[in-house]
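Lecture 7 notes: from sequence to structure.
We start with the chain below.
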Amino acid sequence: MSSVAKMIETIETQMDAPTSNQADAETGVNPEHLRMVEALLFAASEPLDEKALSTSLPEGADVKGVIAELQALYEKRGVNLCLVAGKYQFRTAADLAFLLRKEKPEQKRLSKAAIETLAIIAYHQPVTRAEIEDIRGVALSKGTLDALIEVGWVKIRGRKRTPGRPVTYGTSEAFLIQFGLESVGHLPGLDELKAAGFLEAMPPSGFDVPNPSDALSADEDPYDPNEPDAQGDMLTGSVHLDQA
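Predicted structure tokens for the same chain:
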């Protein structure tokens, strides 16, 4: 092939190659935007939502399309792009978790009461301290709620429109991230709990699993830390948090 023919072939090849501003013919996703979102998610220490990603991309970028393409690309890889708490994060593929598991003594364990309380809050939120005690059938010892708030899995979310205006508790974003849940609506249901052995194959008649919600309920107001409690004191310390 002559040098002129080679030059023509090179020019034609370069003209046919997609530029950084052109979308991929098969996926319709801009490959440069794909690289940018991949880099942002890889470097982030916390999950990122679509709004956070869009602020770093050129105006008009198809963030949803880019995320969908990345999820497909990483579906069979050692890491997957997962949706947790309404945000996106690269996580080790579930079937490879054993590679990263280390056997070491637990530095801190939640008590049985704390685990039961966490389960009640997760499934019955919004829930007050009195309602937690009523569901468990025993008084809630001092410090149990404080421990769950300290670990970051439980938060004060509002106040009940009842006498005394007791605070209501719910799970936090850190809880969703820890357990890999998209929202509280994705907590295990009745069939999943039975399959895992947490419930009897034939639960009592009328038994059902509650459907928790992140949204404020009809009888719940947003939490205001400056609103005094029934005794006229502000909820500013861990002692008051547990007395509500």
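Points to note: Confidence is low (pLDDT under 50) at residues 14-21, 231-244. The beta strands are 79-84, 87-92, 154-160, 167-171, 220-222.
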